Amino acid sequence: MIAPSARGGSSRRIWGLMYRHLALYRRSWPRVLELMYWPVLQMVVWGFVTAYLVGVQGHGLAGAPGGATPSGLGAPGGATIAAGVLLGGVLLWEVTLRSQMGFAISFLEEVWSRNLGHLFVSPLRPWELVAGLAAMSVLRTAIGVGAAMVLAFVLYGFGVWTMGPVLVAWMAALMAMGWAVALAVTALILRHGAGAEALAWGVMFGLAPFAAVFYPVAILPGWLQPVALAIPAAHVFEGMRAALIEGRIAWDHLAWAVALDGVWLAVAAWVFLWQFQQARVRGALLNIGE
Question: Where do the domains of the chain lie?
């Protein structure tokens, strides 16, 4: 049983780590802008592409030259559903991407500032570091994806919240997958140093083709479908399409997403703790990134 004082100490240490990062954003508006920049840019690009495709399918949308309108996606039913699937895929994939990058980049901030060794001179424990980075990931994701969601509604009339309360479960499942990938990337950085830092930006893009973000798993070659179904995000996006196209909640896909998240997180946490202990033995916590 954990004593109340120990629990309180952990909370203070986690908050201290979070406050260190929050102070950076409070004093630097470019950092805050960067959180929103890529999700908003993705929404603008994919939104206009979607508006164009809807215009082509619907033989032009009323109210704008050339058939496209930035104020909504009013078009025949099939085209509207297709637009919702595309925009919903963009927004939900940003949740996965931003949660992973928010976690990994917050860790890299400690590496770049040569602060990692200082943190573990303190009583901070590895799981408290992970909890603090995960909390920062939630905040970073909320700011970036929240801005993109507002923009999607203002420009294209698409409200992702119309999917219903199950949206919260989908987003939680996607964030958990992002944390699992981020833990694995962090473990590689602990093992290989600066040589693995690029993975913090690129690894999720490598998973995207197999995560069925914009198309169903059935589109993939037969031998790739089991690979896709082993990715939690693929089940979330299958569930999203079931909600938008068929109007039903795919509880089976949600259950698979949650179960796979548990497996991914358990494996990634084990790899992270193993590499953390190895880095501590080698003294790499003091000179990682050099």
Answer: 13-287
Closest CA to 234 of 159, 177, 179: 177
d(CA 268, CA 273): 9
State residue 72 phi and psi, 5-degree precision: 165, 175
DSSP 231: S
In one-letter notation, the amino acid at residue 158 is F
Helix, strand or coil for residue 170? helix
What b/e string do you get for 169-186 counting C-beta neighbours within 10 Å, with b at 16 or more? bbbbbbbbbbbbbbbbbb
What CA–CA distances, in Å, run from 131 to 49, 109, 135, 235?
38, 16, 6, 26
**Upper half-sphere CA count for residue 130 (Cβ side, 13 Å):** 21
Q: How far apart, in whole angstroms, are the C-alpha atoms of residue 99 and residue 136?
A: 9
Q: Quick one: which of 53, 29, 49 has its CA closest to 41?
A: 49
Q: Which amino acid is at 9?
A: G
Q: Say how far residue 278 (Cα) sits from the centre of its chain.
A: 28
Instruction: Please compute the mean of the pLDDT values over residues 50-61 and round it to a whole number.
Output: 64
12, two tokens = 């203070």
Exposed / middle / buried, residue 195 (Cβ in 10 Å: 0-12, 13-18, 19+): exposed
pLDDT (tens digit per residue) in 80-92? 677 788 888 999 9
User: Does residue 234 have a pLDDT over 60?
Assistant: yes
131 by Cβ neighbours in 10 Å (0-12 / 13-18 / 19+) ranks as middle
Average pLDDT over residues 134-144: 94
**pLDDT-derived band of residue 78, with 50, 70 and 90 as boundaries?**
low
DSSP 69: -
Assess whether pLDDT exceeds 70 at residue 61: no
